[in-house]
Amino acid sequence: MLLEYFIFGLSTFLMRGAQCEETEVFAEVGSQAVLPCKCNPSSPFIPSIVWSKANKGTVWRKQKSGLQYWGSSWSSKGTQRIQCPHGQFERGDFHLQINNVMGEDGGVYSCRVEHRDQVTVNVVILRIIEVSVSSSVSIWGNDVSISCNVTPWPYGASVHWMLNNSPFVPQTENASNKDTTKSVVREKATARLAGNWTCVMDYKGKEGRASAALTVKGIIHPSKDNTQVYAALASAITLPCVFSPGLIPSNLAWEKLKPEFLFKPAPSRLPASFSQSPPFSQRPFDKSATLKEVGFEDAGRYRCSGTIEGQRLTRNMQLVVAKIDSLSKKTGSVTLTCQLTDTSKVTDYEWVHVIYDLNGTQSVRSIQKGETLIINKVSEEDQGEWTCRFYGKEGILGNVTYNIQLMSGLSGQKSSGGSHNTAAVVGLGFLLLVLLLILAQMYKNHQRRKRIFQYPALETIVHTVSNEREQRNQLKK
């Protein structure tokens, strides 16, 4: 850089009557750079214009005769990368355009405009800025570095990083991150680092920007450890474990972690209804598992792991099971309590009474807040589904449903068909009374016979007297 400024000062000293101006220009690799060169047009004649680069000679020049010359090193595949638009000459604008700039294009340029005896010199320092990533596609957990390179480097410039249009704050402290220039970021690849990286450089009131994309592949769902999955008791639930498309893990394993091992989790037995092959997914990178019927004891932490390119990727998640405890009293009141195995993320509860009409259309009749719902006197209007919805800071987390059935001991409003039910009960009672009377008469006759059979001698005398009476009657005849 000192040599370049020396060349600029020497050229200025050797040019009599020359007016000099210095400008800083930043351009991203692959873009178009515009090098300014302006002077006051004091002559109607065509000036002589020479653009040159330090240590590289002439870039482009235009003689007073109108002839143009391009430097031999400024063409790419037969196409000139530089041009100086003639339409701006009348206004004293002789800027140079460099298309598809490369890192080696950075350096000190000079524009010399000669109007007869007046010479104007503009010096432009072109700095090419480029962001490079150690690997544009990184596997989760691998080391990744993002570098901001500028040619030539502006000593004393400040650098800061933007990730997806937001300021980036490193989570790890290492030698490069402590550097005052902060031109290099080194981190472990996670989903947090994925996206568009932009290096923003400030120097002498000028700002340069360059960007590069970073893709991180691994377990994309859930995107972070200890994600909570909510399920209602006795329902089916999917434990997600989805890898990036195109990644097919080997040595896949699912484990349930014992709660007592906090720092070094140890595996325990998986639930009986656990299945590692979800029937709905045919994608080879989807390694989610299902529980066909969740039990309250199935709550806890689960771990999914697989090997990608020699790197063992794991994801821990927590299954939270919800149920409704009910308490009924003889007075007809019912108390429903929404119970979860972990309430650390729950901020609010909401009770919804779900009603279905004859067409199956769902409607909501009432909504109440709180973990516990108390119905003082259950009526026919209260029967049906009661759903407890639980919410977190980011919205609804899940729900669980309880069905209230109207019992005979519970009081309530009579329906329009009550008179028909009363008549049916009265008729049934009359028939029952008649049946009881018949049974009573039969029992009475049975008891009478039983008393007679207890005295067989008396029965013989009665029969003998009866026979003699019949014989006397026959003799008289």
TrEMBL record:
The chain crosses the membrane at residues 423-443. This is Ig-like domain-containing protein. One of its GO terms (molecular function) is protein tyrosine kinase binding. Residues 30-122, 141-215, 222-314, 333-389 form the Ig-like domain. It comes from the Eukaryota. SUPFAM superfamilies: Immunoglobulin. GO terms for biological process: interleukin-15-mediated signaling pathway; positive regulation of ERK1 and ERK2 cascade; T cell activation. It holds the Pfam family V-set. The keyword Membrane applies.
